[in-house]
């Protein structure tokens, strides 16, 4: 028996021993096409020579220097790289080791910002139902997934949840996307008014919802309206791009496609592409300045913030994406993937919707296509699809959850940006076998 405390204590997984471009190889030599990038992580595939060299070089010179004593070169260069390309107003970067930590930092930056400017009563957070923002206690409290939260309640952060922007199930018959977006922005505004704007700190949302809904983009204009509502009431906007950011949807930041900026943006996964654990919170100038001119000290920190090797790896990943023009490739491959999915599964009796952006695509599974009836609540469907896909030599990311009392099952696809067209055919063939 393995002595690893794995989160699935009743399942056995194959042992991964090697990465090879878009494939992972297990101890028995079986190859798996990584169509989910793990969980939207492995944007450059698994054995990129330049990234490996950058890590070797950095470890050889300086692996780590604690940030209570030093900054380091890769950390400074990576911060410059990100700020130069970030949406307007974001002027500094707080580095952490992953997505949940990035969300925690964003929550505490928001809270400290209001303390610094003399509005400490603004501590209430608004997020969306059926959202996932991480598993540490603050990030877990933010997420709107009832079953994840339940056994850990009471949670530490005051949060209320409004509807996600989920056109397939949320947009009413005869309602235009614009009207739907406006209705949701009203719902957010009503919630702010119900709580009292003077007590609301921030609204948190993913620009394209990943794990919990399966690559669901917002309807056009939704985020611009949300931004207006937040501004009207002095509420900060936190965009969680842990999954959808760093090029996955075809632009470096998914927010670019919404035409909005944010007060805080969280990134992780594709930032380091899995080569090293790293995440970051991009901070607006307004927040940075309030803290710099106030107490001058952000009351937060982890041992590994700004880890030199992790920053060097992320810098190599992000430079590779830019130098190899992989964002255009994401858009082009994304279209190819979408066409193939529509072609193969467009008439499938149990595929109700195919949606997404770039190399971030989702299929919603339904018992009945005509009335969108979801499958009966059970976690077995995900497990069965995942098992069948792994048997077929494919990694995909099936998930399910209850939204407004209705079960929604989906499969998320988030493959590396380095695929060839033949991999798209292989992906769709293997997915078909699994389904
Ligand atoms: N936010 C979002 C949107 C995520 O998808 C995830 C991870 N699935 C997280 C936060 C948490 O990231 P991590 O698992 O790296 O802590």
Automatic annotation (TrEMBL):
GO terms for cellular component: cytosol. Its cofactor is pyridoxal 5'-phosphate. Keywords: Aminotransferase, Pyridoxal phosphate, Transferase. PROSITE patterns: AA_TRANSFER_CLASS_3. It holds the Pfam family Aminotran_3. GO terms for molecular function: pyridoxal phosphate binding; transaminase activity. InterPro entries: Aminotrans_3, Aminotrans_3_PPA_site, PyrdxlP-dep_Trfase, PyrdxlP-dep_Trfase_major, PyrdxlP-dep_Trfase_small. Belongs to the class-III pyridoxal-phosphate-dependent aminotransferase family. This is Aspartate aminotransferase family protein. It comes from Halomonas cerina.
């Amino acid at each position: 028996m393995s002595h690893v405390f794995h989160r699935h204590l009743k399942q056995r997984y194959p042992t991964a021993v090697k990465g090879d471009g878009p494939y992972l190889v297990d101890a028995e030599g079986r190859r798996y096409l990584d169509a989910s990038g793990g969980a939207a992580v492995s944007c450059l595939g698994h054995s990129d020579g330049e990234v490996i060299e950058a890590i070797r070089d950095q470890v050889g010179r300086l692996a780590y220097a604690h940030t209570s004593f030093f900054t380091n070169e890769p950390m400074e260069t990576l911060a410059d790289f990100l700020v130069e390309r970030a949406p307007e107003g974001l002027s500094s970067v707080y580095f952490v080791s992953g997505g949940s930590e990035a969300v925690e930092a964003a929550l505490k930056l928001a809270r400290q910002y209001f303390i610094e400017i003399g509005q400490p009563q603004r501590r209430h957070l608004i997020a969306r139902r059926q959202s996932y923002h991480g598993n540490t206690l603050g990030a877990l409290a933010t997420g709107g997934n009832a079953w994840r939260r339940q056994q850990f309640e009471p949670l530490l952060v005051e949060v209320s949840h409004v509807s996600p922007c989920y056109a397939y199930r949320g947009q009413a018959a005869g309602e235009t996307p614009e009207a739907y977006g406006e209705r949701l922005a009203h719902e957010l505004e009503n919630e702010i008014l119900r709580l009292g704007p003077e007590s609301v700190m921030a609204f948190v949302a993913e620009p394209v919802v990943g794990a919990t809904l399966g690559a669901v983009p917002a309807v056009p204009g939704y985020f611009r309206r949300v931004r207006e509502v937040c501004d009207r009431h002095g509420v900060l906007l936190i965009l969680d791009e842990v999954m959808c950011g760093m090029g996955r949807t075809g632009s470096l930041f998914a927010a670019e496609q919404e035409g909005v900026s944010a007060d805080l943006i969280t990134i992780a996964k594709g930032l380091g592409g899995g080569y090293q654990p790293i995440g970051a919170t991009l901070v607006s100038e307004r927040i940075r300045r309030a803290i710099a001119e106030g107490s001058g000290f952000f009351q937060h920190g982890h041992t590994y913030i700004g880890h030199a090797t992790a920053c060097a790896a992320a810098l190599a990943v992000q430079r590779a994406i830019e130098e190899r023009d992989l964002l255009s490739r994401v858009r082009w491959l994304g279209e190819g993937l979408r066409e193939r999915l529509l072609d193969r599964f467009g008439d499938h009796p149990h595929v109700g919707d195919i949606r997404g952006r770039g190399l971030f695509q989702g299929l919603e599974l339904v018992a009945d296509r005509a009335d969108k009836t979801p499958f009966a609540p059970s976690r077995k469907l995900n497990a069965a699809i995942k098992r069948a896909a792994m048997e077929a030599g494919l990694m995909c990311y099936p998930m399910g959850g209850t939204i407004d009392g209705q079960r929604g099952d989906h499969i998320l696809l988030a493959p590396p940006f380095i695929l060839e067209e033949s991999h798209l055919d292989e992906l769709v063939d293997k997915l078909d076998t699994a389904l």
